């Protein structure tokens, strides 16, 4: 069984995924995906982390071409897609983000979960988990949301927070992290 | 505690709501709302059923004015809103549809649930539950979806299937009716 966790920035989706994997004894794939892509594709880990699930913050077009007109964003997407398919083939796991719900859409053994929370909850969580930086938490969240929605739309042609893409959507701000873990476990 | 169930036509959301209310010993408001609105407003029950949560199928504008330019759709919405607020004040209950999630948005004791399912599941269910009629199930579902989405958008200015409007969204086609009841109970 494979569980994909698509999550809003600051919603605690990653923590939920980790706790769930630990509880179930499932493999947990998050930074592991970055490492394996780096190994297989030659992209730098920092580049993958920055551009692997959010549209670019530096390119006006949102996606990145090199000087020869080659589309690096697409190349990264394909590398990522291949790694996610390989990891899914290994068996029981929890996969965080990176359009994994869409990438694994033809498998029958996948439960797709979307974690979201209201803006205030995410603001507090972003500061407490990631700390302060030069940008106000409002700006950080709005920027991340915009880039993540654009990335998801571009590579999946789906709407990001559309309940119909997932079997289970949970408001972690209201329900709490541990309750979300329990509900996903029960839904399986 | 109040639970609102917003549901796609044919998803089994009404059955889930009824089972949940029975299990919890909560009041269940669905046709009761229609009866009370009829009593308080003078609208015919059939009119309320036809126009209380779906945009009109007969008016080109989707909403209905009488010959004096009076907006009947708005009048029905207000009557409905008042009845839903009154029922919510009575205590523990499950309320089906009619923008109740939006109407009760300022209360702190509400759990908003969205039930959806894929098209094939809903097609089969519509025929088995409501029987055949002169229209093919495809057409019936598409028509209902369109009218319900338009109604919800008009009166709430929200997107119908947006996960962020609900604390819990469930795919009844994949999870099954009874599992949905259990998950809602657990989320409370």
TrEMBL record, chains A, B:
Keywords: Kinase, Transferase. It comes from the Bacteria. InterPro entries: P-loop_NTPase. GO terms for molecular function: kinase activity. This is Cytidylate kinase-like family protein.
């Amino acid at each position: 069984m494979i569980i994909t966790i698509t999550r809003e920035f600051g919603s605690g989706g990653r923590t939920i995924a980790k706790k769930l994997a630990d509880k179930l004894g499932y493999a947990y794939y998050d930074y592991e995906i970055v490492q394996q892509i780096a190994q297989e594709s030659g992209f730098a880990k920092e580049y993958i982390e920055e551009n692997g699930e959010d549209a670019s913050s530096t390119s006006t077009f949102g996606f990145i071409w090199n000087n020869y007109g080659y589309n690096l964003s697409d190349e990264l997407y394909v590398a990522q897609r291949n790694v996610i398919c390989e990891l899914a083939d290994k068996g029981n796991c929890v996969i965080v983000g990176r359009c994994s719900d869409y990438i694994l859409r033809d498998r029958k053994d996948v439960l797709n979960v979307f974690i979201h929370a209201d803006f205030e909850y995410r603001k507090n969580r972003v500061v407490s988990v990631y700390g302060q930086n030069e940008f106000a938490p409002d700006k950080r969240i709005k920027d991340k949301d915009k880039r993540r929605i654009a990335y998801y739309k571009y590579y999946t042609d789906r709407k990001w927070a559309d309940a119909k893409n997932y079997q289970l959507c949970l408001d972690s701000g209201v329900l709490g992290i541990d309750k979300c873990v329990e509900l996903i476990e029960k839904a399986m």
